[in-house]
Amino acid sequence: MDQFGEENRIPYFNVEEGDVGVIAGIPIFALFVASLTGMESLALPLVIGGAAVGVSLVYLTPEHLNAWRWISDISHYVKRPQRTFSAPSNPQQGTNETEQNEGGLRNYSPFEPDERTQDLTHIHRAWPGAGAIEREDGAMEAYLEVTPGNMDFAMADDWAQLQAAGTQYANNELKSKLKFHATTRAFPVERVTQTIEERLTDEDVKENPIFENLLEEYRETRPREMRERGTQQIQFYLGVEVTPLEIYGQFTDEKTPVEKLTQIPIIGFLFNPLVTRREDFSTVQRRIQMFEKLDDRISTVQSEFVQQASGWSSRRLSTVELFALSMDFWNGREHSLETASNALRENPVVGRSQREGVEE
């Protein structure tokens, strides 16, 4: 949930637009510099050198970013503030803010970040109860937690059946973008201990002292070994999204000529107003339509893909769980659901109350 929409690629060349801008932009800038300085004889070497630098930057860019995004992140890091000004911790007696700022030079200059949390995460709003999070560009996202079946001892036919289920879904049912995320969390050791504790109370265990001793030893050693080895569990998620433009679509299977024009790379956004003028939805109506389409896509993924895979199961994440996963990623540590639920504000900051009259 840290990017907007799907990546745009140049047709036939399969190159991201951000990479093309770097490859072509540096030689053009070099040619512009040569023309301004009058060194026309160096124009060709500068252009070739600029192209080499652009290709090198694209090659060095991490795979999960394009060259333009990577350069922007590096420049943002280089330009970060290096010093923070603040008022003295023990101001002199009688010194107030007016005296500190006397003469126009502000001694008290608290650091104000030049970016918001939304600028990094692109998360605009959480919708409790809807199981969705709204991005800064207005799109809604929802996720399924997928629990795949155990394939440790699966045969070739089992893998082929799973591949066929995914292929059939992608070719016949998938009409929108589908995201896949995998993450790790600390293994719930307490769950293992609780299971052993419950097992020790069973009658068959009490009647078998050897089995009881084995369980007690397992209860003492296994959790400690798992903590020492840093055992983790892998969690898989499938995500769907709905953009505000999608609810204005007239046809679901076949797009109109105007809707096809909106998909043209680079200039397609110019035709968006021609599509959105069909209906004049209010903000609430548009949001309801997006939630309904989001629910339909989640149901389609569950029924046409997850349930078709033998041994697989899934459940939709609540808004609090989505928020907790985002907090885990950006803070670098795990949060409990209670902590995340406290971070979600369900009531407005400013309330409304009626002023009571004063009797004289």
Give your account of this protein's structure.
The protein has 360 residues and is an alpha+beta fold. The chain has 3 domains: 9-75, no CATH class; 117-187 and 231-343, no CATH class; 188-230, no CATH class. Helices cover 47% and strands 12% of the residues. The strands form 2 sheets. Strands 3, 4, 5, 6, 7 and 8 form a 6-stranded antiparallel β-sheet that branches. A two-stranded antiparallel sheet has the order 1-2. A hairpin with a 4-residue loop joins β3 and β4. α1 (17-37) runs antiparallel to α2 (43-60) and α7 (189-200) packs antiparallel against α9 (209-229). The longest helix has 24 residues, at 283-306. The radius of gyration is 29 Å and the shape is extended. Mean pLDDT is 76; it is low at 84-89 and 91-111.
List keywords for this structure.
single chain; 360 residues; alpha+beta; six-stranded antiparallel beta sheet; two-stranded antiparallel sheet
Question: Could you give a short description of this structure?
Answer:
The chain crosses the membrane at residues 20-36, 42-60. With 360 residues, the protein is of the alpha+beta class. Helices cover 47% and strands 12% of the residues.
Outline the secondary-structure elements:
Elements: E1 9-10, E2 15-16, H1 17-37, H2 43-60, H3 67-78, H4 97-100, H5 117-121, E3 123-127, E4 132-135, E5 140-147, H6 156-172, E6 178-186, H7 189-200, H8 203-206, H9 209-229, E7 232-242, H10 257-261, H11 272-276, H12 283-306, E8 313-316, H13 319-331, H14 337-343
Antiparallel strand pairs: 1-2, 3-4, 4-5, 5-7, 5-8, 6-7
Helix pairs in contact: 1-2, 7-9, 13-14
